[in-house]
From TrEMBL:
It is found in: Cytoplasm. Residues 179-326 form the Tetrahydrofolate dehydrogenase/cyclohydrolase NAD(P)-binding domain. The gene is 106093221. Coiled coil: none annotated. It comes from Stomoxys calcitrans (Stable fly). This is C-1-tetrahydrofolate synthase, cytoplasmic.
């Protein structure tokens, strides 16, 4: 006979004859000297042990991510004092562990919609890993509590109350968040020493919070479970069958000793207030089990208080740390959970559009998830493109940065060398074939070339961005936003000149600072202008007449206006126009011009801005003209900064697309490479570098040859971002080198001369100096240069070998023949391997310092990058140089605007001539972008349409909705 059973019999002997009175209060069981009592399962002790373990886990996380902290947010509606007690308890426990806990107390007047919106904001906050909505809701309005608990994202539902988490528990998936009280019960049962597997368990109560999930957890720990509730018959008899009795019925001391099977483990989840005149407070806390009776029968029992209660809080902390651990693991993850798209290259290789349409892209939200973006960081534009929030940079700031690779070319020829195609092939090889995290960062193409003659810029063959129609047309409207912002500023500029010419100082001032409903005040931007002018007043009526005029008049000299209107199409007749010819303009006309939209300084600002705040400051600093005293007039002076920022706020977010093999591409910004710096955006690179992690690769493109795009990428973009590239990929073709060696002219669409279709080593060798100059350009920045020989069908092995040998002799780190155009990423695996190794060898350095005079900077670039002997300024350029230096722009980097078709300033000169003089015709400042432009020869910022533009071939099939004739 067991000791537990003997103890049970002794209790029975003392019971009254009328067993119905048991538990009525007429009988009190008191232990005798020979009686033993149940082992107390101290929830307080176990909870303390769990907290200590959690402290160590948080410490381990922060050892790898020093600035990372688990975040818990407790949302309370109203201010019930009992809720406040629980909240203080949770916050205290959280702080002891190292969890950053915040209490969000909302007013009783809050509506359901407002509460759900608040919860959604917390769902989208990456610093919050756990969300609790304290129940009950103390609100004046009706709020559906179930809807509220389900509004918390399942991945942050540390209470375990979301329907999805409940469902996981019900099917035995214990990898999600388990409800805290039942989970605490399971931990206490484990500590009791009883084996759950095979045991008979009875759960009193079927509540959503305790009873039902407790029964499911016991079931999945292999107990045989019975659930009792208010409709259960002979409930006491059922309870007496239990090896494990879990009680959460909500009735004080309902379960008596007679309900307990001798030797059972009793877990009391109840907490009730009972009157007790012996206590100073007049009350005491009791559970749903009559503790004094049950402890004489059970082998182990939890007390109230000090049992399940502390465990509920401990398991809440466990869930929060678990959630934070997942977030930290994602930050530290080295390799994406990435599934490439399969390529099936056809022979002969079809047209680009046929290839693009033969592949079914991934849903862009799936790709975003694969590369580690959160749902709230992705704004979908359909299902094949999306914008990426800059918040991703902040969330991932603790993560390491990937290697940074710039792809440039030799001096381009009319047929192109496949620079974009090589970039895409490289990232396809890195990600889909070498299992390395890699992102391609590309510029967005202008509609000018798309509808003109050049075509799109999505790559080509089996190395391109898809859907290529969306890539080349509109995308998400960024260029249109640049156009609108640019032309708004142009309109404000001319309008301001008009109003200053037609109004007195007082009238102008009164209109700039009007009295509205009896109140007159300066706007924020006007206060900045006052500060700039040294007028330390904030009351508009306090200015003197002299200060009226000083504030109101910009006194712009029309002869110095540098700001042009833009449009994103090729329209040669807008290169020079006359504006202001309407009679309403009172004869104030002037000669003006249009540029193509991507030539706008705003596009350069978009590409170089590091944040919304930085973009706003850059927009404010854009110089549109000079006043009659020689001082610069800015967009901020015109009052336009805020409006421009509003138009561009969404445009600053990079666009996510994919390659044919499903690898990620960030498409963003598209400044001209000859008159601006020709690179995609800094923010795209920053997001990409964090997404790939410290073992990944970000490959970005620099416009045209290394003398233009790569030089500006380093001296302008990297100077601005502070980034140091690890390697340079230099794209070359046998065909282009033959042309630089003196080969016959090439016209797009015309048959190739046999010099290019037959082996000709002599001609090829004559063109090699161009390649060697570009290798030297990369080495001048301390970059290891990997030459990618983009093969064509007419090339021969001997020609490839000649190029490889010459490249290595000239100091290239590696030279590789690539076939990505015909084979996709598989054709660029050798290139990928070379890039991986080359990135370990970088010792990047800028070409010149900011303090160097502007002329010296130009000479440094021309002599090092082009092979020139010197730079020569025209009288106009000399005057511009002096004016810009005097205005304080002498410490800015130089953006050399010259032809892309030659290392010299003359597009007709091929090869790599040395010792020539480069003439600078004029100079101007792009103060917002942060560089001074030196114009070397006539560079058109408004291309024209050819005799037969691509528009002849482009059409829309109205039956299928497909675009036809696009490449």
């Amino acid at each position: 006979m067991s000791a537990q059973y003997q103890r049970f019999l002794k209790v029975l002997e003392k019971w009254p004859a009328d067993k119905s009175k048991v538990g009525s209060g007429d009988f009190e069981t008191k232990p005798t000297e020979n009686m033993s009592v149940a082992k107390l399962i101290s929830g307080t002790q176990v909870a303390n042990e769990i907290r200590e373990t959690l402290k160590r886990k948080v410490f381990d996380i922060q050892r790898d991510l020093p600035n990372f902290a688990p975040g818990l947010c407790i949302v309370q509606v109203g201010g019930r004092e009992d809720s406040n007690v629980y909240i203080r308890m949770k916050i205290k426990a959280a702080k002891e562990i190292g969890i950053a806990a915040q209490h969000v107390q909302l007013p009783r007047t809050i509506t359901e919609i407002e509460l759900l919106d608040k919860i959604n904001n917390l769902n989208n906050d990456p610093s919050v890993h756990g969300i609790i909505v304290q129940m009950p809701l103390d609100s004046d309005t009706k709020i559906d509590s179930h809807k509220v608990t389900d509004a918390v994202h399942p991945d942050k539902d540390v209470d375990g109350l979301h329907t999805m988490n409940e469902g996981r528990v019900s099917i035995g998936d214990l990898g999600g968040f388990m409800p805290c009280t039942p989970w605490g019960c399971i931990e206490l049962i484990k500590r009791s020493g009883i084996q759950m597997a095979g045991a008979r368990a009875v759960v009193l109560g079927r509540s959503k919070i305790v009873g039902t999930p407790a029964s499911e957890l016991l079931k999945w720990h292999n107990a045989t479970v019975t659930v009792c509730h208010s409709k259960t018959k002979n409930i006491d008899e059922v309870c007496r069958t239990a090896d494990i009795l879990v009680v959460g019925i909500g009735v004080p001391e309902m379960v008596k000793g007679s309900w307990v099977k001798p030797g059972a483990v009793v877990i009391d989840c109840g907490i009730n207030v009972k009157k007790d005149p012996t206590k100073k407070s007049g009350t005491r806390l009791v559970g749903d089990v009559d503790f004094e009776e049950a402890k004489l029968i059970a082998s182990a029992i939890t007390p109230v208080p000090g049992g399940v209660g502390p465990m509920t809080v401990a398991m809440l902390m466990e869930n929060t740390v678990r959630s934070a651990s997942r977030a930290a693991a994602n930050l530290l993850k080295k390799v994406w959970d990435f599934a490439p798209l399969v390529l099936r290259p056809a022979r002969p290789v079809p047209s680009d559009i046929v290839i693009a349409r033969s592949q079914t892209p991934k849903d862009i939200s799936m790709l975003a998830q694969e590369i580690g973006l959160l749902g709230n960081e992705v704004s979908l534009y359909g299902n094949k493109k999306a914008k990426i929030s800059l918040n991703a940079i902040n969330r991932l700031k603790a993560r390491g940065d990937g290697a940074y690779v710039v792809v440039a070319g030799i001096t381009p020829t009319p047929l192109g060398e496949g620079k974009s195609t090589t970039l895409i092939g490289l990232v396809q090889a890195l990600t889909a074939h070498r299992q390395r995290n890699a992102v391609a960062c590309l510029r967005q193409p202008s509609q000018g070339p798309t509808f003109g003659i050049k075509g799109g810029a999505a790559g080509g063959g089996y190395a391109q961005v898809i859907p290529m129609e969306e890539f080349n047309l509109h995308l998400t409207g960024d260029i249109h936003a640049v156009t609108a912002a640019n032309n708004l500023l142009a309109a404000q500029l001319d309008t301001r000149i008009f109003h200053e010419k037609t109004q007195s100082d007082k009238a102008l001032y009164d209109r700039l600072v009007p009295r509205i409903k009896g109140e007159r005040k300066f706007s924020k931007i006007q206060l900045r202008r006052l500060q700039k002018l040294g007028i330390n007043k904030t009351d508009p009526d306090a200015l003197t007449p002299e200060e009226f005029g000083k504030f109101a008049r910009l006194d712009i000299d029309p002869a110095t206006i540098m700001w042009e209107r833009v449009v994103d199409i090729n329209d040669r007749y807008l290169r020079q126009i006359t504006i202001g010819q309407s009679s309403t303009e009172k004869g104030f006309s002037r000669t003006a011009s249009y540029s193509i939209s991507v030539a706008s300084e705003i596009m350069a600002v978009l590409a170089l801005a590091k944040s919304l705040d930085d973009m706003k400051n850059r927009l404010a600093n854009m110089v549109v003209a000079f006043d009659r005293k020689g001082g610069p007039v800015t967009a901020d002076d015109l009052g336009a900064t805020g409006a421009l920022t509003v138009l561009l706020k969404d445009a600053l977010e990079p666009n996510l697309m994919q390659t044919l093999e499903g690898t990620p591409v960030l498409v963003h910004a598209g400044p001209f490479a000859n008159i601006a710096h020709g690179c995609s955006s800094i923010v795209a690179d920053e997001i990409a570098l964090k997404l790939v992690g410290d073992e990944g690769f970000v490959c970005t493109e620099a416009g045209f040859g290394s003398d233009i795009g790569m030089e500006k990428f380093c001296n302008i973009k990297c100077r601005s971002s502070g980034r140091k590239p690890n390697a340079m990929v230099l794209v070359a073709t046998v065909r282009a080198l033959k042309m630089h060696g003196g080969g016959a002219p090439v016209t797009p669409g015309a048959p190739l001369n046999k010099q290019y279709t037959e082996e000709n080593l002599e001609l090829l060798e004559k063109g090699l100096p161009n390649l060697l100059q570009h290798i030297s350009n990369g080495n001048a920045f301390g970059l290891p240069v990997v030459v990618a020989i983009n093969s064509h069908s007419h090339d021969t092995p001997a020609e490839h070998q000649l190029v490889k040998a010459a490249a290595l002799k000239a100091g290239a780190y590696a030279a590789v023949v690539c076939s990505h155009w015909s084979d996709g990423g598989a054709g660029a695996t050798e290139l990928a391997d070379a890039v991986i190794k080359a990135c370990e060898k970088s010792s990047f350095k800028l070409l010149y310092g900011n303090e160097m005079p502007l002329l010296d900077k130009m000479n440094k670039i021309a002599q090092t990058m082009y092979g020139a002997a010197k730079v020569e300024l025209t009288p106009t350029a000399q005057h511009d140089l002096e004016k810009l230096t005097k205005a304080g722009f002498g410490n800015l980097p130089i953006c050399m605007s010259k032809t892309s078709g030659s290392l010299t300033g003359d597009a007709a000169i091929k090869g790599a001539p040395k010792g020539f003089t480069l003439t600078v015709n004029n100079m101007y400042v792009s103060a917002g972008a942060g560089f001074v432009v030196a114009m070397c020869g006539e560079i058109s910022k408004m291309p024209g349409l050819p005799t037969r533009p691509s528009i002849y071939d482009i059409d829309l099939n109205t039956e299928t909705g497909e675009i036809e004739g696009l490449f």
